[in-house]
Design goal:
Elements: E1 3-8, H1 13-25, E2 31-36, H2 42-52, E3 57-60, H3 70-82, E4 86-89, H4 96-126, H5 136-147, H6 153-160, H7 164-171
Parallel strand pairs: 1-2, 1-3, 3-4
Organism: Vagococcus allomyrinae
Protein name: Recombinase family protein
């Protein structure tokens, strides 16, 4: 079997030396080391898929060596599963990945439940969810201060107690 082993270059040379020693000790000689930065964005995951070169297994030393949050790890697992690539750990127990994937599912469920509960509570108290709407009087004031009084966006934002982005958004609207 030809192993594809991911190595996070952000970890340093000592970890790579350790990894190579463990691979040798385990008798894994037919390998391709894929040295990349952390897999915490879509671009790096796509680069990894390209480097796997049709391999259906990705070997990693351990979970810590990935340097990913639970949500980033979840995203990686989803992409690997979609591409029918098995993730294997060299230095973790066989059940680790199964247990960890259950933790991911539970983490997502708890986070979703909390957000929904918070949204219900906020709607019940305020009747709205999200950022407060900008009053039409403030929109008119923004327009007037900028176009009539010739104030800068920063001055308008400060005077109307809104962000520069909000002031900029309403400068050219006559609402």
């Amino acid at each position: 079997m030809n192993y594809r082993v991911y190595f996070n270059t952000e970890l340093g040379d000592s970890e790579q030396t350790q990894l190579l020693a463990i691979l040798k000790k385990e008798g894994i000689t037919n390998k391709k080391i894929i040295s990349m930065r952390s897999l915490n964005n879509d671009g790096s995951i796509n680069d990894l898929l390209h480097a796997l070169d049709c391999s259906k297994e990705l070997w990693v030393y351990n979970y810590r060596s990935l340097s990913l949050t639970i949500f980033e790890f979840s995203k990686l697992c989803t992409v690997l599963e979609k591409n029918q690539i098995a993730l294997r750990f060299i230095n973790e127990k066989d059940t680790f990945l199964d247990v960890f994937q259950l933790v991911i599912v539970q983490e997502k469920a708890v986070a979703s439940k909390r957000v929904k509960a918070s949204a219900r509570k906020t709607r019940k108290i305020n009747g709205a969810w999200g950022r407060p709407a900008i009053d039409s009087d403030i929109k008119k004031k923004i327009y007037h201060l900028y176009h009539v009084e010739k104030k800068t966006i920063r001055e308008v934002a400060r005077e109307c107690q809104v962000s520069v982005g909000t002031a900029s958004k309403y400068v050219n609207s006559e609402e």
